[in-house]
Design brief:
Order of helices and strands: HEHHEEEHEHEEEHHEEEHEHEEH
Strand order of the largest sheet: 1-2-3-4-5-7-6
Number of strands: 14
Largest sheet: 7 strands, mixed
CATH class of the largest domain: Alpha Beta
Structural class: alpha+beta
Helix content: 25-40%
CATH topology of the largest domain: Aminopeptidase
Distance between the termini: 35 Å
Length: 348
């Protein structure tokens, strides 16, 4: 990530700001309640419904604690754009909360946020980048793709239909991305099963190919007959299931997950002994989405698996041309097709 390039973009964007626009940053010490209200107003104007607006008290607490640092643009006393950097528990910083009612202003705020991060921290930058097309009143994520992949140089690691917006409520596809590659010294161990291996390679391995690099070693094993038990450990904004000694059968826990959210994710290690669990997930319709940015405790990459509840509305995707390599694009399209083929109510 090139600080000089970011500074140049800031200068260009600043010159192009519409007349009457005032920018507010963390140094202006806007009250946390005002920042929360402005962000909520913007999110509701663009997305109608948004997960961040559901817990105002947590948002205020994160702002007060410096976990969430926000930038706003306002005109005539009303917010027209926002961006933020949010500290993550793994030491990374997420660039997000980006909303804009005026073209070009949102990217300016994001560049300000990134410049602030580069001046104060050496931690990696991560983002959940919308790749949804314009659909049912909500704009596309093309501008965000350009900022994150062209100018910030983020690297895709997984494609996940993780979050929902709008009215009607629809899930949208997001590219989980990072400024750093996944650096694993341990191999990815996959099932010695042709169908399972081919599916993972064409989806998760492809979309994360630039993050994993050509040096990533893949091995296969036959798995074991041991039955894996599972537990539901999170239900908002999407459900998260993990292997658990005290859990229940996969199908039972998935049924509980469906009561809470349309999308369920499983982070599954790729070390020895996980192949049978992976086959079980694939047989139940879980789709390989990519890899987590953090390694498992054993040093092996962590495969992300996802499943949408039947009948979920899934917004179409639109990629900005020229931002991604051929293999990454193939992985994105394969994952997208896999999810859509499972849905009864899907918009193409």
């Amino acid at each position: 990530m090139n600080k000089e390039h970011i500074d140049l973009l800031i200068d260009r964007k600043k010159e192009a700001l519409p007349d009457g626009v005032i920018v507010f940053g963390p140094e202006d010490n806007l009250a946390a309640q005002v920042q929360a209200d402005w962000l909520t107003t913007l999110l509701c104007q663009v997305y109608v419904q948004h997960g961040i607006t559901k817990n105002r008290e947590k948002l205020i607490a994160d702002i007060d604690a410096g976990i969430c640092k926000l930038w706003f643009a306002a005109k005539d006393g009303k917010p027209i754009s926002s961006a933020a950097v949010i500290k993550q528990t793994d030491g990374s910083v997420e660039i997000g909360r980006a909303v804009s009612l005026v073209k070009g202003v949102g990217s300016f705020l994001r560049f300000l946020a990134i410049a602030d991060h580069l001046a104060t921290s050496s931690g990696p930058v991560v983002s959940e980048v919308r790749i949804a097309d314009q659909f049912a009143g909500i704009p596309s994520g093309e501008a965000t793709q350009t900022v994150c992949f062209k100018h910030l140089g983020l690297i895709p690691q997984a494609l996940v239909p993780a979050f929902c917006h709008g009215d009607p409520v629809r899930q949208e596809m997001f590219l989980f991305s990072s400024s750093e590659k996944i650096r694993a010294e341990e191999p990815i161990i996959l099932p010695n099963d042709r169908a399972s291996l081919d599916l993972v390679v064409k989806t998760a391995m492809a979309v994360a190919s630039e993050a994993l690099g050509n040096e990533q070693i893949i091995k296969t094993d036959g798995g074991s007959k041991q039955i894996t038990k599972w537990s539901l450990v999170r239900s908002d904004p999407f459900c998260l299931m993990i292997p658990s000694d005290n859990g229940s059968q996969l199908e039972t826990v998935l049924g509980e997950a469906y009561k809470n959210a349309p999308f369920t994710m499983i982070p599954l290690g790729t070390g020895p002994g996980h192949s049978s669990a992976l086959i079980e997930c694939l047989n139940l319709g879980f789709i390989p989405c990519g890899f987590d940015r953090n390694l498992g405790g054993d040093g092996h990459p962590v495969l992300l698996l996802g499943k949408l509840r039947e009948g979920t509305l899934l917004a179409p995707i639109k990629l900005v041309s020229g931002l991604f390599g051929i293999r990454v694009v193939a992985g994105i399209n394969n994952i997208n097709r896999q999810f859509r083929s499972q849905l009864l109510s899907t918009i193409y």
